Amino acid sequence: MMPLYLLRHGPTEASAKGAPLGRLDLPVAPEGQARWPRVREELLALGIGRVLTSDLGRARDHALDLGLPCLVLPGLSEQAFGEWEARPWDQVEGAEAFFRDPARGVPPGGESFLACGARALLALQGALEGEGATLVLAHGGPLRAILAHYIGLPATRALDLSWQPFGLTRVDVYAPDRGALRFHNRLAG
Question: Does the global pTM surpass 0.90?
Answer without folding.
Answer: yes
